[in-house]
Prior knowledge:
The complex is a heterodimer.
Chain A: E1 3-8, H1 12-24, E2 27-32, H2 35-44, E3 49-53, H3 62-73, E4 79-83, H4 86-94, E5 101-104, H5 109-127, E6 136-139, E7 142-145, E8 150-153, E9 156-158, H6 162-173, E10 179-180, H7 181-187, H8 194-211, E11 218-221, E12 225-228
Parallel strand pairs in A: 1-2, 1-3, 3-4, 4-5
Antiparallel strand pairs in A: 6-7, 7-8, 8-9, 10-12, 11-12
Chain B: H1 4-52, H2 56-59, E1 70-75, E2 102-105, E3 108-114, E4 118-126, E5 144-151, E6 160-166, E7 171-172, E8 174-178, E9 191-197, E10 200-208, E11 213-223, E12 231-234, E13 246-249, H3 252-259, E14 266-272, E15 277-282, H4 296-315, E16 324-325, E17 328-329, H5 332-340, E18 344-349, E19 355-364, E20 367-374, H6 375-424, H7 444-491, H8 498-532, E21 537-540, H9 541-555, E22 560-564, E23 571-574, H10 576-593, E24 599-606, E25 610-617, H11 647-657, E26 661-666, E27 673-680
Parallel strand pairs in B: 1-3, 1-13, 22-24
Antiparallel strand pairs in B: 2-3, 3-4, 4-10, 5-6, 5-11, 6-8, 7-9, 9-10, 11-12, 14-15, 14-20, 16-17, 18-19, 19-20, 21-23, 24-25, 25-27, 26-27
Amino acid sequence: MKRRIALIEDEPAIGANYRDALERRGYAVALYGNRPSAWQAFQEQLPELAIIDVGLAEEVDGGFDLCRDLRSLSATLPILMLTARDGETDSVLGLRLGADDYVTKDMSLDHLFARIAALLRRADAYAGRQQEAEREIRRGPLTINLDRMVAHWHGQPLDLTVTEFWMLHALARHPGHVRSRDQLMEAASTVLDDNTVTSHIKRIRRKFEAMDGTFSAIHTAYGLGYRWDPSQC
Amino acid sequence: MLSLRRQLGIVLLLTLMIPAAGLYFVLDLESALREQQEQQLLSRARVLSRHLARDPALMSLPPMAEAPPVLYAQPLERPLFLDGYGDDWPGASGSSGRPPMHDAGDGVRWNAAEDGQYLYLLIRVQQPSVRYYAPQSPRQPHDSVRLYQRHGLQEAGAPRLSHRIRTSAPGPIQALANNGNGEGRDDPRVQGVWQEFPGGYSLELRLPYPATLSHLGFQVLTPGKAGGQDSTVRGNLGPQPSGLPRLRTRDSRLSQTLATMTEPGLTVRALDAHGWTLGEATALTPPREDLWQSGPMAIAQRLAFNGLRALLAWREPPAMALSMTAGQLSSPLRQQVLEQGQAQLAVTRGSGGGRSLTALAPVSDRALLMLEQDSRTLVSLSGATLGQVLSRSLLLVVALALALVGYAGWLSWRISRLRRAVAATVDPQGRLVGTLTPGPRRDELDDLAHHFAHLLERLQGYTGYLESFARKLSHEIKTPLAVVRSSLDNLGHTGLSLQQDTYHQRALQGADRLRHILNAMSEASRLERSIESAEPERFDLAPVLSQTMAAYQDLDPDHVIEYRGPRQGCPALGVPELLVQMLDKLVDNARDFTPAGGRITLRLTPGSRDYRLDLSNTGSRLPADSSDLFASFVSLRDEPGGHLGQGLLMVRLIARLHGGHIRAYNLPRGEGVCFTLNLPYPGKG
């Protein structure tokens, strides 16, 4: 059975291109050009994953509103935000609107597919649909479940976006090894500038520190990148 | 360049020329007036002297050659007190309190005066010691004075009266009348007091002054040194072969005649050939008006007028002494006038220290007319109306000059203020940091300020637009780029032929490059946002720098990249990640310009006030005009490839976040380029 994906995008060419590409990958895609039509459809049936453009026609922040409303309907529905403006990245992640990840519009479709696949896998894991043996990495108090795409610190779940999860995994897989920014980006299937990588790392650290004030496992190797401190394992 | 202050100084000097020119005009006018006045006084003297020539008092004077000596008694306004000192005589002044005296020769000096009723005689004799009359031995020689009188105008028929005046001690004298037959009796009509002073004695006498008294003379008798009977006769006012000295006093009728010739400030005198005053008349100078009862304008005008007069006095020719000594004019000028028979003019010192203009004219060969014009009335003659006008004009000119200078100063102050205000809107790195808030529009200068404000606003808008341009552009291009990109991705799955695939690949590469460019363009604005949310922390600067440079060396074996400075112990406050990002940009930049094998050195020096970071590289040089190096969209690279010049803008943003200041300059002797960052020490707490 085809997975149902809702695509809310006001730019017809992009919407059509994304729909075509997703359908080619075997997804069933419902394309909406604006917020009201999408919202109306969601009232009847929720998709399995929603891709929402932040700027929707007249509504500059319509995507944010839709994301918030959708999250109120379902707590587990994977939501992927599409952004065109640099400033929106911080809004997506900072406002805690309930999005699971974001993609900038100039990203390649492959990067988009990687995220969609990851998000769906995570949703399946939550739903208990995954029956296979789960792959897990343990680094001291840190547990990373690759199938569920969740990380725990001292048994407590960490609320990470897909990008953040992949970066953390890349760091923790080989403790003590420095991961350059390029390597982190590659691991997270994304293209960012150094500055954005730095803010991602900062955000990951904050999420750890919110649970554990003494957290210091992610070290900065000045001029090189970051590494997971083996002494913390 | 001539600064505004200097120009103002020149304007001030030029403006001062206005009152200076006015002053020169006044001075020239004054000398012309003075000349005219001199001529006027001289011709007046000539006219009056011709008029006086027929006056009987002057016609009766004897010719100078055969004139006998004269004993002149000046008029008194009040009686004198007989005490032998003479300090109440007219003209008595100075610490000695002595009146001016005439010389009679042989150490004898004298002065005479009359009050209509009495005749006073003051005699002063220089003599080492005084021998007084001793009543117990009357034959013994003693000091005495002999007084001669003759009554009646006809000398021949008039009897001669003489008194011998002596005393036995300083004090009242004894006057012995002598009728020609030896010692006579004591005459109470002649009173006097004898006083002794170091080196001589003085004698003050008073005798009746009937109208008939026509001749008067005296002799000083000093006993011989050896104690003999003979006494030395001293003084030239005794009986002469030509007769007794003639008594001369002020002629009241002549004075009345002279009084008709005076006017305010003018003194008219008639003198005889010896300079004795025969008649005198003075008109009172007009009283000064009370300054404090007049208004402030009048006071200012008065001050200006006085200043003008002081200036005029300074320009006046030097004055000569032409003073009257106890009614006698003693000056060689008198002789000159009499001999040449021509009127003469002199500037003299007046009694009050002021200057006078004096004209001397011969009346006949035995009399002179003297006109003395008070300098105060002299100037006020020209000043009464003209001086007032001049001083008022001078006052106005000075006020005008001050107003002009004040106006020029005000204008230049406003221009300087505008300059400062405009300069304050731009920081040393050429960034606009403020706006201009001009006041209301009143004139062109205010208009200029408004234009400047407008210009700055426009410039600020333009700068802001340029800075946001990259962000806006990347936003606007991203969506069409996404269309291109996703279309190309879809196209790749449609089964392209080999040839189509080639073009597809090229299109993909182009889209990728375009994406890179967009990212680079908006990098600085993204950095600005992350700076806004940056949280400074305390960290050790030294290991951050040394580790970073070591990492660069690992990544780049073609250059020598080194760190010099302390290994630790450099506490700093900031965001180390951002500082490293700044170094990324700087080292990246340096690597591009350093030839292979070149050296890139980062030096950390803890200074007295801040850390100093010097990143130098060998090789290239900065072009001469590189002041905007750190601005947006400024790239000094020559090579093609679309370098957007955002790197150094980010360097400056990060430096500023840390309160630091960065500059770039060429090293001496062509050793390369150096970027120096001054990073302040962390504050306490």
